[in-house]
Design goal:
Helices cover about 85% and strands about 0% of the residues. It is an all-alpha fold and about 260 residues long. It has one domain. Helix 4 runs parallel beside helix 7. The protein starts with a helix and ends with a helix.
Length: about 260
């Protein structure tokens, strides 16, 4: 199968299929879903850490060579900064959208604003996921598959929450599903753009992989792990450690099998 087709299919899987799976997950009874979802998040945290530190970053360092080690470090710092700024902008917009509204329409306005923010934020997020997937595939087919798995793992619990916000914003379930799936189209679009952009500048591919690793690290450390710390009882903490380790182990095993 041509490389571009691999990239498009896997980017679509990361962006669209994860949304569909998340909606199926929402049909699970609420009480049971509330117990299962944190486990998905723990596993996704491990998958992201494993993909960043065991797959993407080693490939970036190998591709750059000894002379490019400082450039890889710089790309990591830039990537962390970019994802921090993106998150800040979304949070600022969210706060700004809720200002200067009062009366009985305030809550309705807040819910509609949250729905719009979810759609915009998901589109940007999915486009970046597509770039990360394309960068990995341009380096190695197996690395692309591992990256796709990591993207899908963290997208599923993310999409569950976003779908719930859209329904709360007043959308019907079918419309919320349609819009959630539509934002997933940004992933293959971003992947195709990255494919043509990076193919004409293969020298920057190790930097793109380092940027991708920074994105995964930021999502795991700044986005997912703080939520896991909200529950600190011994049983939950032990389950989190086991599932994070399982996520890392799956990535490590996939890396080992694909490079034999």
């Amino acid at each position: 199968m041509p490389l571009l087709l691999w990239i498009i299919v896997c980017a679509a899987f990361g962006g669209i299929a994860s949304a569909a799976f998340a909606v199926v997950f929402l049909w699970v009874p609420e009480e049971r879903g509330a117990r299962i979802l944190p486990h998905f998040i723990s596993f996704a945290t491990g998958a992201l850490l494993g993909a960043a530190l065991l797959a993407l970053l080693p490939e970036a360092i190998e591709g750059a060579g000894p002379a490019g080690a400082h450039a890889i470090g710089f790309a990591l710092v830039v990537g962390l900064g970019v994802f921090f700024i993106i998150e800040k902008l979304v949070l600022w917009w969210h706060a700004h959208a809720h200002d200067d509204e009062g009366g009985s329409h305030h809550q309705d306005h807040r819910e509609r604003a949250s729905g719009v923010l979810v759609l915009v934020g998901d589109s940007i997020h999915n486009a970046l996921d597509g770039v990360l997937i394309a960068s990995a595939f341009l380096t190695d087919l197996s690395l692309g598959l591992v990256t796709t798995f990591a993207v899908a793992a963290h997208e599923i619990p993310h999409r569950v929450g976003d779908f719930a916000i859209l329904v709360q914003a007043g959308l019907s379930r079918p419309r919320a599903l349609l819009l959630n799936l539509a934002t997933g189209l940004a992933s293959p679009i971003g992947a195709v753009a990255a494919y043509y952009g990076l193919r004409s500048a293969m020298g920057v591919l190790p930097l793109a992989l380092a940027f991708a690793a920074a994105g995964f690290l930021y999502i795991a450390v700044a986005g997912l792990i703080p939520g896991l710390h909200r529950r600190a009882d011994p049983r939950t903490s032990a389950a989190q450690v086991i599932l994070i380790s399982a996520g890392i182990a799956v990535i490590a095993l996939a890396e080992r099998l694909t490079h034999q």
